[in-house]
């Protein structure tokens, strides 16, 4: 078994995984906002503390606004997953190094960076929506930036740097092909 065959085989698995995630993640988001009143509080307050929020059911309007707000980070995540699936489809086809790879790496890095920014906006929107039922004076707007966001930004920066290095390598390879 040579390495190219293994790369194609593993890439097929990743391409399949990203295809499943492209369907599963939006469905989970829809289910989250449809059934949010029935979910345990521990599932609802994953990223934001629920302590200042009074227990109350969210109205359909608030759930629709929450779902619309969730589409912001979801769109960045979906964009990243689509590009990851394309990247692994190239590897699966045996195309290992091309200008398309460089473009895909850049798109994936940008998706990560936008995902962080839009997730912060979404989490802040969630805090407002969850505390709207609280009495005046105890409503909350929470803006957070933690280690998860920092890690994602660093990974996005590294992926962008790798794209830059790959592009330089591609240019050098093209120059070597033209040199006699």
Helix fraction, binned, reads over 70%
Structural class: mainly alpha
Distance between the termini: 35 Å
Question: How large is the count of helical segments?
Answer: 5
The strand count comes to 0
Taking the sheet with the most strands, its summary is: none
Regions with little confidence, pLDDT below 50 for 5+ residues: none
Averaged pLDDT: 88
Strand coverage percent: under 5%
N-to-C SSE string, H for helix and E for strand: HHHHH
Secondary-structure blueprint:
Blueprint lengths: L2 H32 L6 H4 L15 H33 L6 H33 L15 H32 L2
Helix pairs in contact: 1-3, 3-4, 4-5
Quick description:
The chain has helices spanning 3-34, 41-44, 60-92, 99-131, 147-178.
Task: Name some characteristics of this structure.
single chain; 180 residues; mainly alpha; 5 helices; 74% helix; elongated
General description of the model:
The protein has 180 residues and is mainly α. 74% of the residues lie in helices and 0% in strands. It is built from 5 helices and no strands. It has helices spanning 3-34, 41-44, 60-92, 99-131, 147-178. Helix 3 (60-92) packs antiparallel against helix 4 and helix 4 packs antiparallel against helix 5 (147-178). The mean pLDDT is 88.
